[in-house]
């Protein structure tokens, strides 16, 4: 039986409209290409940008663990967003925001930080803790020796060069790689991955704000100034 042309056209149109999304070889939504700036999945964003330093699950990486509720509470989500976006000058923490030379959009950074706090920022564990101020502030001019001896020497040695429990905090390379703020943060919240206690448990009693400042100043006073690296062909390196 020969169908009228209008009927054939109608049938073909219906088949095309209902079957175009199931054509052979056409990828489903999950397999379609996404621009890097469109990726909002935390697992992908964190895995590509953070896990190499901070560990796949926010711990057991070469840098400070992010799966630390006390650290997250101390830094705060807005400051964390600024750190992720613009990095920390003078350290190995790079800037990730496009506006600072990175590859992530502001929306991606916001999503990344939000999920970090939702996964690892256990507010109940730090509730009631009166956290010391975050900013380094003014340096101390006295008291560093006494504070270091009372709260740090048992692990790091009387001169800071290391002991049986922990390594050196006066090593020139170490001090060249960490900022004053990073030192203060470590003194206040400790390092859960290294067994370093926070300011409440470092000694026989919690450290006072002044003692925290004294210890940080004691370490920064031992930082040596390194000359700027001379690249081949640069003026003053003996090569033309």
List the keywords:
240 residues, mainly alpha, Cytochrome Bc1 Complex, Chain D, domain 2, 2 domains, disordered C terminus
CATH domain class of the largest domain: Mainly Alpha
- Low-pLDDT segments, ≥5 res: 234-240
CATH topology heading of the largest domain: Cytochrome Bc1 Complex, Chain D, domain 2
Overall number of domains? 2
Reported CATH architecture of the largest domain: Orthogonal Bundle
Summed over residues and divided by their number, the pLDDT gives a mean of 86
**Total count of helical runs of at least 4 residues:** 12
Q: What is the total tally of β strands?
A: 0
Please tell me what the overall shape is: elongated
Sheet/helix structural class: mainly alpha
Helix content: 40-55%
Would you write up a description of this structure?
The structure is a single chain. The chain is mainly α. It folds into two domains: 36-126, Cytochrome Bc1 Complex, Chain D, domain 2; 144-220, Cytochrome Bc1 Complex, Chain D, domain 2 (Orthogonal Bundle). It contains twelve helices and no strands. α8 packs across α12 (209-220). The protein starts with a helix and ends in a 20-residue tail after the last helix. The relative contact order is 0.10.
